[in-house]
Amino acid sequence: MKAFRNGLKVGIPIGLGYFAVAFSLGIAAANAGLNPFQGFLTSALANASAGENAAFIAIREAVPYIEMIMISIVSNIRYVLMSFALSQKISPETGLIHRLLLGFYLTDEFFALTIAQEPYCDPCYSYGAISFAAPCWALGTALGIVMGNILPARIVSALSVALFGMFLAIIIPPAKTSRPIAVLVILSFVLSYLLSRFSSLSDSVITIILTLAISSFAAIAFPVKGGSHEE
Amino acid sequence: MRNNIYIYIIVMALTVFAIRVLPLTIIRRPIRSRFIRDFLYYVPYVTLSVMTFPAIIDATSKPLAGLIALLIGIWGAYKEQGLFKVTLLCCISVLILEFIL
Questions:
Q1: Around Cβ A188, how many Cβ atoms within 10 Å?
Q2: Which member of B48, B74, B94 has the closest CB to residue A157?
Q3: What is the b/e burial string over A116-143, where b = at least 16 CB atoms within 10 angstroms of the residue's CB?
Q4: What pLDDT does residue A226 have?
Q5: Per the CB < 8 Å rule, is B39 touching A219?
Q6: Whose CA is closest to A126, among A145, A143, A106, A142?
Q7: Cis omega (within 30 of 0) on the bond before A223?
Q8: Would the CB atoms of B83 and A166 count as touching at under 8 Å?
Q9: Does residue A201 belong to the interface with chain B, where contact is any CB pair within 8 Å?
């Protein structure tokens, strides 16, 4: 019970951050034609900012279901890496239910606080944080859809860049210290611009193709030294 | 053609769940392949970059406001201002820019 309460305390700032970004995501969901309940459901089931944004674009473009599977794999594939890392931090006696729950709520933030525990993580600590922050995420999305229609266009326009601000805060700091990442960010910007302006490919197809192509290129051109992938 | 939104949501949720849970439950040993590990390492940066630009200039009602917000966001992130501040910086820039432009 103590672990749960400690986790809850850590969950409060995480939840407030989630709320703001989820609100911005709600605006994207409204553009895709989702109602507040559908937005709430998506965020309650998926807990993924980039993944949900990609999914909302796919819904807006009315892609085939198979393409939705592909875009979901590509935009969430980084969690494969985290899931592998997390599997090393879970005590071997941990039951399947705990593994399923920790996997379901494997976001960047919950990953960070779960992995920080020694030697193994206490699932109750994570559940404490999740119990506050996960509802913030789902409610924020629903509220973004409701308010996106009510707020003045200028405010909506400003809030809709929140998501991209968050993406920049994730990609730019590592690009400072890693030249390969800096090169990849610029290359991604340029190719993404060219394809979106001069090809008839949809945004979700562009994301899939460029992610696979540029990341493969990077894995060959810039092998990671030392083999340590912990961020 | 308009597909069913609930089917989209279920398809996405199941895919995301499988991605997060399979390594945690089934595969217990580290990935051996150098290529796959490096590939997975670079994927988040590329996906997020591709989704940021040019989407940010299409998200605002005036493209120039989005472009300047992008540059200000990059500057803020470069100065290690943290997730919340960078996000706020981008929003406020657009709010002011769309008023001026």
A1: 25
A2: B94
A3: eeeeebbbebbbbbbebbbbbbbbbbbb
A4: 61
A5: yes
A6: A106
A7: no
A8: yes
A9: no
Shortest Cα–Cα distance, B95 to chain A (Å): 5
- Interface check for B101 against chain A (CB to CB < 8 A): the answer is no
A172 shares contact with chain B (CB less than 8 Å): yes
DSSP count for chain A of H helices, then E strands: 12, 0
Q: Averaged in consecutive runs of 10 residues, what is the pLDDT profile of chain A (231 residues)? A: 89 82 92 96 93 95 94 89 80 88 89 78 92 95 91 85 86 94 98 96 88 95 71 40
Determine contact: B30 vs chain A, CB below 8 A.
Answer: yes
- Chosen from A70, A94, A126, A168 to mutate, greatest number of chain B CBs within 10 A: A168
Q: How confident is the model at residue B2 (pLDDT cuts 50, 70, 90)?
A: low
Helix axes A108-115, A2-31, angle to 10 degrees: 160
User: Which strand (E) or helix (H) includes residue A109?
Assistant: helix A108-115
Nearest-angstrom CA–CA distance, B51 and B32: 29
**Interface pTM, i.e. ipTM:** 0.89
Q: Where are the domains of chain B?
A: 5-100
What is the pLDDT at residue A173?
92
